[in-house]
Amino acid sequence: MISKKSAAAVNAQINREFFSAFLYLAMANDAMSKGFKGAANWFTQQFKEEQGHALRFAKYLEDQGAKVELGAMDAPKTQWPGLLAMFKDALAHEKKVTAWINELAEIAVAEKDFAMQNMLVWFINEQVEEEANCNDAIWMLEMCGNSKGSLFMADHRLGKRGED
Ligand SMILES: [Fe+2]
Ligand SMILES: [Fe+2]
Predict the structure, then answer these.
(1) Dist. CA 12–CA 9, nearest whole Å
(2) Which of 26, 40, 113, 149 lies at a CB distance of 3.0 to 4.6 Å from 32, suitable for a disulfide?
């Protein structure tokens, strides 16, 4: 049993998670076009992870007997000056997502929806990880500065990311 208000809020978040996936795929494409195959892998893994988030929310709605309704998505940006700019945008985006997840939690509390509160715990923890991952990459890329050799190594390291 889920209230209309909660179901609408989860539906909105499903669309946002798909937009996140779209944004990370755009970053993967831009990284690939610039020759950063490692970063392209990192963003492709993130693209897959975001689809997983959308489907996790969708499964919850379905389990609660509510219908998933997909909406229109904005086109993502398609070009960044470099990897550091991409990860800075990724961090800014994840902070927005964290705020949205917090809004969902506020709704769940207001609606006294304990199942939704419990479901959101996973996402609250996930957002801590998402922001930390972006911060790690930003730290590494800031250390590289304009050194091509260091950037090569950083890209190699980003390429080591598997599906997590
Ligand atoms: Fe997500
Ligand atoms: Fe994650």
Answers:
(1) 5
(2) 40
CB of 76 closer than 8 Å to CB of 19? yes
CA of 129 to the centre of ligand 2 (A): 6
Cα-to-centroid distance, 18 and ligand 1 (Å)? 8
Tell me, yes or no, if the pTM score tops 0.85: yes
Q: Do 31 and 133 meet the contact criterion of CB atoms below 8 Å apart? A: no
Q: How far is CA 69 from CA 25, 46, 54, 59, 90, in A?
A: 22, 23, 12, 12, 26
The tens digit of pLDDT for each residue in 108-135 reads 999 999 999 999 999 999 999 999 999 9
Q: Which ligand is nearest to the CA of 129?
A: 2
Q: Which residue, chain included where needed, has tokens 């509160």?
A: 117
